[in-house]
Amino acid sequence: MIIFIDSYTEEKLANSLAGRPGYFKLFYDTENCGCNGVLAIEILDQPLDTDIRISVKNFTFLVDKQQESLFDDALKLEADRSYPSFKVSSDSALYSTNVRIKDARDMASK
């Protein structure tokens, strides 16, 4: 899998990390959803054993092996210039236009 980002998106991702290490996990969140899931991005301290790593410029994205088939081989991640969210798309699909980043680092210790 490949994820393409532009320089503005790269800046927004770096701001989300706030100078700390972390991994961006792209996944369908089904918790309390009652549906097929909502596309989300979480910042994690460490990948899980079932995660696939994807290098994107200075970042590492993660996708669970079980959810990898839900995405096309090449994705485009774009930061919204007027709202704190991202759009995830491919040449053949629009996955979501309102993807938020949730920082889940250090959650196990809280």
TrEMBL record:
- State the superkingdom: Bacteria
Q: What range(s) does the Core domain occupy?
A: 1-103
Write down the Gene3D superfamilies for this protein, in alphabetical order: HesB-like domain (2.60.300.12)
Question: Which organism is this protein's natural source?
Answer: Paenibacillus cookii
SUPFAM superfamilies from the UniProt entry: HesB-like domain
- UniProt xrefs under Pfam families: Fe-S_biosyn
The record's InterPro entries line, in alphabetical order, gives: ATAP_core_dom, HesB-like_dom_sf
Instruction: Write down what this protein is called.
Output: Core domain-containing protein
* Residues that span the membrane, as ranges: none
